[in-house]
Automatic annotation (TrEMBL):
The lineage of its organism: Bacteria, Pseudomonadati, Bacteroidota, Flavobacteriia, Flavobacteriales. It comes from Aureicoccus marinus. This is PorT protein. Residues 31-202 form the Outer membrane protein beta-barrel domain. It comes from the Bacteria.
Length: 232
Protein backbone atom coordinates (compact mmCIF):
# COMPACT_ATOMS: atom_id res chain seq x y z
CA UNK A 1 0.00 0.00 0.00
CA UNK A 2 2.82 2.40 0.87
CA UNK A 3 4.59 1.72 -2.44
CA UNK A 4 1.35 2.30 -4.36
CA UNK A 5 0.73 5.55 -2.46
CA UNK A 6 4.22 6.92 -3.16
CA UNK A 7 3.99 5.81 -6.81
CA UNK A 8 0.69 7.64 -7.23
CA UNK A 9 2.16 10.71 -5.50
CA UNK A 10 5.17 10.78 -7.85
CA UNK A 11 2.91 10.38 -10.88
CA UNK A 12 0.70 13.26 -9.74
CA UNK A 13 3.72 15.50 -9.12
CA UNK A 14 5.13 14.62 -12.54
CA UNK A 15 1.77 15.32 -14.21
CA UNK A 16 1.45 18.66 -12.45
CA UNK A 17 5.01 19.53 -13.50
CA UNK A 18 4.19 18.78 -17.12
CA UNK A 19 1.05 20.89 -16.88
CA UNK A 20 3.21 23.74 -15.61
CA UNK A 21 5.44 23.39 -18.67
CA UNK A 22 2.65 23.23 -21.27
CA UNK A 23 0.02 25.63 -19.90
CA UNK A 24 -0.83 28.62 -22.06
CA UNK A 25 0.97 31.46 -20.23
CA UNK A 26 3.62 30.00 -17.92
CA UNK A 27 6.20 31.98 -15.99
CA UNK A 28 9.27 31.83 -18.22
CA UNK A 29 12.30 30.12 -16.69
CA UNK A 30 15.93 30.66 -17.73
CA UNK A 31 15.08 33.29 -20.33
CA UNK A 32 18.76 33.89 -21.22
CA UNK A 33 19.79 30.21 -21.24
CA UNK A 34 20.04 29.94 -25.04
CA UNK A 35 21.77 33.28 -25.59
CA UNK A 36 25.17 32.20 -24.24
CA UNK A 37 27.86 31.45 -26.82
CA UNK A 38 29.09 28.38 -24.93
CA UNK A 39 27.08 26.00 -22.81
CA UNK A 40 28.01 22.93 -20.74
CA UNK A 41 26.20 19.95 -19.29
CA UNK A 42 26.10 16.19 -18.85
CA UNK A 43 23.82 13.29 -19.72
CA UNK A 44 22.76 9.94 -18.32
CA UNK A 45 20.74 7.26 -20.04
CA UNK A 46 20.44 3.73 -21.28
CA UNK A 47 20.88 1.94 -24.61
CA UNK A 48 20.13 -1.20 -26.55
CA UNK A 49 22.66 -2.30 -29.19
CA UNK A 50 22.18 -4.71 -32.07
CA UNK A 51 24.23 -6.01 -35.02
CA UNK A 52 23.37 -5.84 -38.70
CA UNK A 53 24.96 -8.66 -40.73
CA UNK A 54 25.67 -8.74 -44.46
CA UNK A 55 26.29 -12.29 -45.68
CA UNK A 56 28.48 -13.61 -48.47
CA UNK A 57 25.94 -16.26 -49.47
CA UNK A 58 22.39 -17.15 -48.50
CA UNK A 59 23.15 -20.35 -46.63
CA UNK A 60 20.13 -20.87 -44.40
CA UNK A 61 19.62 -19.42 -40.94
CA UNK A 62 20.88 -16.01 -39.90
CA UNK A 63 23.00 -15.31 -36.84
CA UNK A 64 20.75 -14.49 -33.90
CA UNK A 65 21.44 -11.49 -31.65
CA UNK A 66 20.14 -11.47 -28.07
CA UNK A 67 20.12 -7.81 -27.00
CA UNK A 68 20.28 -6.41 -23.47
CA UNK A 69 20.09 -2.93 -21.96
CA UNK A 70 23.22 -0.96 -21.18
CA UNK A 71 23.92 2.49 -19.80
CA UNK A 72 25.34 5.80 -21.09
CA UNK A 73 27.09 8.64 -19.32
CA UNK A 74 28.87 11.64 -20.80
CA UNK A 75 29.59 15.36 -21.00
CA UNK A 76 28.27 18.08 -23.31
CA UNK A 77 29.97 21.07 -24.85
CA UNK A 78 27.73 23.29 -26.97
CA UNK A 79 28.50 26.31 -29.17
CA UNK A 80 25.64 28.54 -30.26
CA UNK A 81 25.49 29.24 -34.01
CA UNK A 82 22.21 31.17 -34.08
CA UNK A 83 18.77 31.09 -32.47
CA UNK A 84 17.96 27.72 -34.02
CA UNK A 85 21.27 25.90 -34.56
CA UNK A 86 23.92 24.68 -32.10
CA UNK A 87 27.12 22.70 -32.60
CA UNK A 88 27.56 20.04 -29.92
CA UNK A 89 30.38 17.77 -28.82
CA UNK A 90 29.19 14.93 -26.57
CA UNK A 91 32.03 12.61 -25.46
CA UNK A 92 30.66 9.68 -23.49
CA UNK A 93 31.01 6.13 -22.28
CA UNK A 94 28.55 3.43 -23.35
CA UNK A 95 28.42 -0.06 -21.91
CA UNK A 96 26.47 -2.83 -23.62
CA UNK A 97 26.31 -6.61 -24.03
CA UNK A 98 25.12 -8.71 -26.98
CA UNK A 99 24.93 -12.48 -27.22
CA UNK A 100 25.35 -14.08 -30.65
CA UNK A 101 23.82 -17.42 -31.58
CA UNK A 102 25.50 -19.13 -34.56
CA UNK A 103 23.46 -21.72 -36.48
CA UNK A 104 24.75 -25.16 -37.43
CA UNK A 105 26.37 -26.16 -34.13
CA UNK A 106 25.19 -28.95 -31.86
CA UNK A 107 27.18 -27.72 -28.86
CA UNK A 108 26.21 -24.55 -26.97
CA UNK A 109 29.89 -23.87 -26.28
CA UNK A 110 30.45 -23.46 -30.03
CA UNK A 111 27.13 -21.81 -30.88
CA UNK A 112 27.07 -19.00 -28.29
CA UNK A 113 29.39 -16.01 -28.17
CA UNK A 114 29.03 -13.12 -25.71
CA UNK A 115 30.31 -9.68 -26.71
CA UNK A 116 30.72 -7.17 -23.89
CA UNK A 117 31.57 -3.76 -25.29
CA UNK A 118 32.60 -0.55 -23.60
CA UNK A 119 32.61 2.25 -26.14
CA UNK A 120 34.25 5.64 -25.62
CA UNK A 121 32.36 7.77 -28.12
CA UNK A 122 33.21 11.17 -29.65
CA UNK A 123 30.17 12.57 -31.51
CA UNK A 124 30.09 15.89 -33.32
CA UNK A 125 26.47 16.93 -33.80
CA UNK A 126 24.21 19.69 -35.09
CA UNK A 127 21.15 20.46 -32.98
CA UNK A 128 18.30 22.17 -34.83
CA UNK A 129 15.64 23.61 -32.52
CA UNK A 130 12.18 25.01 -33.13
CA UNK A 131 10.96 28.25 -31.64
CA UNK A 132 10.60 28.15 -27.86
CA UNK A 133 7.02 27.65 -26.64
CA UNK A 134 6.79 28.87 -23.06
CA UNK A 135 9.13 26.59 -21.09
CA UNK A 136 9.69 23.90 -23.70
CA UNK A 137 11.25 23.59 -27.14
CA UNK A 138 11.42 20.56 -29.48
CA UNK A 139 14.57 19.75 -31.43
CA UNK A 140 16.16 17.31 -33.82
CA UNK A 141 19.83 16.34 -33.67
CA UNK A 142 22.24 14.51 -35.95
CA UNK A 143 25.85 14.13 -36.94
CA UNK A 144 28.80 11.77 -37.07
CA UNK A 145 30.84 10.02 -34.40
CA UNK A 146 33.83 7.82 -33.86
CA UNK A 147 34.12 5.38 -30.97
CA UNK A 148 36.79 3.17 -29.42
CA UNK A 149 35.65 -0.30 -28.32
CA UNK A 150 37.71 -1.19 -25.24
CA UNK A 151 36.40 -4.78 -25.33
CA UNK A 152 37.14 -5.43 -28.99
CA UNK A 153 39.87 -8.15 -28.60
CA UNK A 154 41.15 -7.07 -32.03
CA UNK A 155 44.76 -7.88 -31.20
CA UNK A 156 44.07 -11.26 -29.60
CA UNK A 157 45.78 -14.17 -31.41
CA UNK A 158 42.86 -16.42 -30.40
CA UNK A 159 39.69 -16.55 -32.45
CA UNK A 160 36.39 -18.45 -32.29
CA UNK A 161 38.21 -21.79 -32.21
CA UNK A 162 39.34 -20.73 -28.75
CA UNK A 163 36.01 -19.09 -27.86
CA UNK A 164 37.07 -15.50 -28.66
CA UNK A 165 34.85 -13.37 -30.87
CA UNK A 166 36.94 -10.45 -32.11
CA UNK A 167 35.84 -6.97 -33.16
CA UNK A 168 37.68 -3.92 -34.47
CA UNK A 169 38.71 -1.24 -31.99
CA UNK A 170 37.48 1.82 -33.91
CA UNK A 171 33.99 2.40 -35.25
CA UNK A 172 32.63 5.27 -37.37
CA UNK A 173 28.91 6.00 -37.21
CA UNK A 174 26.18 8.49 -37.92
CA UNK A 175 23.55 9.51 -35.39
CA UNK A 176 20.08 11.01 -35.65
CA UNK A 177 17.44 11.72 -33.03
CA UNK A 178 14.90 14.09 -31.51
CA UNK A 179 13.90 15.41 -28.10
CA UNK A 180 12.44 18.27 -26.07
CA UNK A 181 14.15 20.93 -23.97
CA UNK A 182 12.31 21.72 -20.74
CA UNK A 183 13.30 24.94 -18.95
CA UNK A 184 12.97 24.44 -15.20
CA UNK A 185 13.69 26.99 -12.50
CA UNK A 186 17.36 26.06 -12.12
CA UNK A 187 18.44 24.06 -15.20
CA UNK A 188 17.42 22.85 -18.65
CA UNK A 189 16.29 19.21 -18.75
CA UNK A 190 16.19 17.43 -22.12
CA UNK A 191 14.94 13.86 -22.65
CA UNK A 192 15.78 12.54 -26.12
CA UNK A 193 15.87 9.38 -28.20
CA UNK A 194 18.60 8.73 -30.76
CA UNK A 195 19.54 6.07 -33.29
CA UNK A 196 23.20 5.20 -33.94
CA UNK A 197 24.24 3.37 -37.12
CA UNK A 198 27.80 2.18 -37.82
CA UNK A 199 29.31 3.01 -41.20
CA UNK A 200 32.28 0.65 -40.92
CA UNK A 201 32.61 -3.12 -40.67
CA UNK A 202 33.49 -4.19 -37.11
CA UNK A 203 34.24 -7.87 -37.66
CA UNK A 204 37.73 -9.30 -37.30
CA UNK A 205 37.52 -12.59 -39.28
CA UNK A 206 38.85 -15.84 -37.84
CA UNK A 207 42.31 -16.98 -38.84
CA UNK A 208 40.82 -19.86 -40.85
CA UNK A 209 39.25 -18.52 -44.11
CA UNK A 210 36.76 -21.42 -43.96
CA UNK A 211 35.72 -20.70 -40.36
CA UNK A 212 32.12 -21.83 -39.65
CA UNK A 213 31.67 -18.67 -37.55
CA UNK A 214 32.90 -15.86 -39.80
CA UNK A 215 33.49 -17.16 -43.34
CA UNK A 216 29.95 -16.30 -44.50
CA UNK A 217 29.92 -12.80 -42.96
CA UNK A 218 30.68 -10.03 -45.44
CA UNK A 219 30.24 -7.22 -42.90
CA UNK A 220 28.98 -6.70 -39.35
CA UNK A 221 27.85 -3.25 -38.24
CA UNK A 222 26.55 -1.97 -34.92
CA UNK A 223 23.21 -0.23 -34.68
CA UNK A 224 21.64 0.98 -31.48
CA UNK A 225 19.05 3.11 -29.75
CA UNK A 226 19.88 5.55 -26.94
CA UNK A 227 17.54 7.25 -24.52
CA UNK A 228 19.36 10.13 -22.84
CA UNK A 229 18.44 12.56 -20.08
CA UNK A 230 20.45 15.75 -20.40
CA UNK A 231 21.06 18.39 -17.73
CA UNK A 232 22.46 21.79 -18.76
Amino acid sequence: MKKAFFGALLCSLFASGLYGQFKENPILNLQNEDKRKLNWGYYLGFNQFDFQFDYQLDRGQDILVDKSYGFNVGLIGEMRINDYLDLRFEPGLFYTQRTLGFPGFSSQVDAIRETRSTYISFPLLIKASAKRFGNWKPFIIGGVSTALNLGSKQDSPDDNRAGEFRMKKQVYSYEVGFGIDFYTTYFKFSPSIRGVFALTDELVPDNDPASPWTSNINAMRTRGVFINFTFE
